[in-house]
Design brief:
alpha+beta, single chain
Length: 320
């Protein structure tokens, strides 16, 4: 910590203040950051430095979606440039596309006019890698990506420096060339276009692979963002399996439904049989009870008749 403090005191720190709109600026201060290659100007994010030394509102923008810091209701959002034009780094206004051999800004392929249809061969990427329109900005000049295999080529090597959350710096080197897109890459030693390596072939960098992905083992592998391509026979097998599974499930449901119906039918039959047995038992009981009451009634009538006779006899004897 003490060492960092001493170094911070020993090394001069340049603080670049941003000028708001309509403030003074100097066009000669426009430059690219040495590390990130971002465009630096005296004006803030809402303005550009005009020739007369004043920060004026930006007249165009490159990105379709704006950063949150640029969404200010007090400032008008600059428009996108129409087809056939581009917005320069300073956003001073839309300019017509640069023709072949014209001057362009760093990594701004969109500033170059595309070649006529059929003038430049572009092989489609089998791995859905992003491709250009046949024009490229190399070494500040608009070129076409038309260098064939074995022919001489032009390369541009740019190293970007970034910083992680801990403050440690890291580098990212990007090498671009004018070889035919999807066909070859420019070898830095021979300055010739070599054929791109297919999957499983040895490589030293991503640009040497057709998939633009050189694995840690030093061989070309599938890019992680590529679309998964499935063979037609796999579609047929999966569809057949789904059909068989659906039929199997339907058959199981039918069997289960029939078994449930059979079980319910047996239960209802047992219930009806039990109720019929109860009914027959009640009828039998009533029949038996009715037949048992008849002799009892005759005996009762005989007994009643005997009592009547006995009473009459008693009365006669009493009169006597």
């Amino acid at each position: 910590m003490l060492l960092l403090t001493i170094l911070s005191l020993a090394l001069p720190i340049k603080v670049h203040s941003r000028t708001p709109l309509y403030g003074p600026c100097n066009v000669t201060n426009n430059h690219l950051d040495a590390d990130t290659k971002d465009f630096i100007t005296d004006c803030d994010s809402f303005g550009f430095c005009s020739i007369n030394g004043t920060c004026l509102p930006r007249q165009c923008r490159q990105d379709e979606y704006l950063m949150t810091s640029l969404l200010d209701p007090t400032h008008v959002i600059p428009p996108l440039c129409p087809t056939g034009s581009f917005c320069p780094d300073d956003a001073s206004g839309c300019l017509p596309l640069v023709e072949l051999g014209g001057v362009c800004q760093l990594n701004r392929d969109d500033e170059c006019a595309p070649p006529p249809n059929g003038a430049v061969l572009i092989l489609p990427s089998p791995y859905d890698e992003p491709q250009g329109d046949g024009s490229i900005c190399l070494l500040g000049t608009c070129m076409w990506t038309n260098a064939s295999l074995g022919s001489s080529c032009v390369t541009e090597t740019i190293t970007y420096v970034g910083y992680d959350l801990s403050g440690m710096s890291y580098t990212n080197t990007v090498i671009r060339d004018n070889c035919i897109e999807g066909q070859g890459y420019c070898d830095l030693t021979a300055n010739q276009c070599f054929a791109l390596a297919t999957l499983g072939v040895g490589c030293k960098s991503d640009r040497e692979c057709q998939s633009f992905n050189c694995g840690s083992a030093g061989i070309c592998i599938m890019p992680p963002e590529s679309a998964v391509r499935v063979a037609k026979w796999i579609y047929a097998v999966v569809s057949l399996s789904i059909g068989i599974s659906m039929v199997g499930v339907l058959w199981l449901l039918i069997v289960a439904h029939r078994r449930a119906q059979k079980k319910r039918r047996i239960m209802l039959e047992d219930y009806y049989k039990e109720q019929t047995a109860y009914r027959n038992s009640i009828i039998s009981f009533h029949t038996a009870f009715a037949s048992r009451d008849k002799p009892f009634d005759s005996e009762k009538e005989t007994f009643r008749q005997s009592l009547s006779n006995l009473s009459d006899t008693t009365l006669v004897q009493g009169d006597r």
